[in-house]
Amino acid sequence: MSAASLSYAAFFISLFVVAHIVLRVRLPHADPFLLPLGGLLCAVGLTELYRIRPELAFRQGVWVVVGVVVFAALVLLLRDYRELDNVKYILGVSAIALLVLPALPVIGRTINGATLWVDFGGPLVFQPGELAKVLFVVFLAGYLRDNREMLSYGAAGQGRLPSPKHLGPLLLIWGGAMLVLFQTRDLGGALLYFAIFLVMLYTATARWSFVAAGLALFLAGAFALYQVIPHVQERVQSWLDPWADPEGQSYQLVQSLYAISSGGVFGSGLGDGVLVTPQGSTYIPFLETDFIFSAITQELGLAGAAGVILLYLLFAYRGFRISMLAQDGFSKLLAAGLTAAVSVQAFIIIGGVTGLIPLTGITLPFVSYGGSSIVANFVVLALLLMVSERVNRGERA
Amino acid sequence: MNPQIRRLFFVFSFLFVALIATATYWLWRAPDLEARQGNPTLLVRELEIERGLILSANGRTRLAANRKRTLEDGTVWWLRRYPRGELTAHAVGYSTIGRSRTGLEKSLNDYLTASNANLSTVLDTTLDKLRGIPRVGNDVVTTLDLSAQRAAMQGLAGECGAAVALEPATGRVLALASSPSFDPNLVESDFDAIEAITAPCRPAAPLLDRATAGRFVPGSTFKVVTAAAALDTGRFDPESTFEDPGFCTLFGQRVFNFADQSGPGVFGTLTLAEALENSVNSVFCNLGKELGANVVLEYAKRFGFYERPPIELPSEEVLISGLYRRGRLYDPASPSEVDPGRLAFGQERLIVTPLQMALVAAGVANRGVVMEPKLVERIVSPDGDVIEGFDAEEWKTAIEPRTAAELTAMMVRVVESGTGTAAQISGVPVAGKTGTAETGVAGRNNTWFIAFAPADDPEVAVAVALSDQSGTGGATAAPIARAIMEAVLGRNA
Prior knowledge:
By secondary structure, chain A is mostly helical. Chain A is 68% helix and 3% strand. The chains are: A mainly alpha, B alpha+beta.
């Protein structure tokens, strides 16, 4: 604890207080819990990052400021989010364009085997996939609202397959996204987009057969990838038996499990965990991004870990509540999709680092180190709150 | 759409609860995970303990000491350093963050970190922690005699092999040497340098403690066990005579006497004592056939074969000696599964460690009683209290004192006028036995010498084993054994 760290904390409290005031003035009826939940998760992340390496926390702090500014700008300037519905195809195509960017020469960057970053020189390295996620949800919300009847009942009565006219654009955008994600080896991203797609399709159509078909497709795809990509085999094998090769392919997972198990109920305490070597590197590679949850669990214990998970559960509760109260289909689907995006993402990475599901790298929303992720999640927050404002004001579609 | 959204929320609630359950599961598994190699969490926490020293038998020379390091946040870490480097690398082992621990550093970790829990130490450490007093571990004084250890390491230099020296009457391990060795100071900082070590054997495996876990074929040194069986059963005495046709017929095939025996190719009529002196395979082959494999193996077990010697090293670093089949220890259910002739002169599928053969020599030296091999002289608390003292304990009663005396006389003749003359020490009677075991590849013989001295009042028993040799045990291993014994007896120290 130092004057620097205290003033740092004071700055972020005031930042969120200002954001909250902007929100209350501009959107007085919006859900009062979501912004504080995001702020709390941000604070947990910043604190843990500060403990891992103070420079990381300062850089993350800058991105939180950018995120809050973007949040405030959206809240102040975007008068009606439903206008996004009019440009959904542009957004859908943009989402794919964003996903393709890292694969382009010159600006594309490959880190840890995945081509997810765009480098414009200097500090401007960003991961467009995070923002594309939001655009993808907006597109799906608009598209599914327009076509849900046709998708639900088919062209002539229930049980028939929807016509290619209605299914086509959907599969095109979705297939394009999956293709690009596999091309760039972003397995976590692919899993996330797949889940968002299924969740929104189910919400729109209530057809279990779609979910079943989607899951079957997923299993078939996963099996095919398992055969083709060695990286996928490694991930699955180290998930099935992490102890088979603790020094090799399951090193990250095994180190993560050591960290998680050593925390006890209340953790070692912040700063007292075994995370950083005397040389300054971390025992778990990518501790500050993919494995931030393992660091939090070691230092704050099971209590802290459960706390973080419950924050996501509360976030999901508030988000789905907005969706249920919304009157129009676009708002409903948008709120459900955005909420699902954050929840699924949290589940994929926490499940991955705890060994519940195979590990695929993705950021923990609001917590992990990473500018694109932080900014994208503040955009999610702004959109959810705008839907909520409209819902609670009682306007009808 | 609301029913779907409600269901979705339930699904996500279930998933998040599953995450909390998984985290709880790992917390429950924590003790299990903590014990694993490569888990840095406990290792690093133990760095804050001023680890006890590891000392040589004189109680002063430091084999493992500490380097204090203050981190940026004020935390004090005690990092290990090994002032004697390669000299005692295998017995002492190492304690690192990245590569865990081996040797005494591993097996005595609780003492070295003062976490050998009884109620009062737990209370003390808790109080110290509250007061902010750093914990200090207990010092370990080993039985290692550095002059013997140095003689062993010098003798082994450039070879692949190992040497063990024991005090026969007590079981004290005076030297435990393995070559090629490594500098334990480099394990954490420059492991590549250790992996780059080369030796006449491939792989060089410098980290392997060949003294306790090296796999050697005992060859003719095993004739001591066969001779012990022959004498102790009362069926033969040193003057029993045998015919040596120059070969022994096994399963219809002639096994010729090995080139390392001294004297003529065919001895004709000779006594058991003469057969040992000159290491005549055909005699032992026929002796084995007469005794039977089960009797020979029974005596091997009486010397400690088929049991892990109770030395204070981690059990995975101590190999059990005996017959091996497909890499695994194998105790034949029926004697017919084993060729008694080849067993009797130490071929068959026998795999032994230098430690086990040193125990055989020490057992003969100690009137037939094999003492438990011990590496730890005493463990001393930071206040100077002796927590654990040395206590000589009998491990095995192998043979009768009378048998031991007869065998000793036969082994003295080996050094006086047989295959082991290179081990002679002027003015000191030495009892010994050579061994040259074929592995089937030229230049890849295992050569051996086991011995004890003085033969009339033994102070030291040794076993030296070398792999990848083209010479005989008498020429290659015996001089090293002599140097070690001289160091212990103070002749050349």
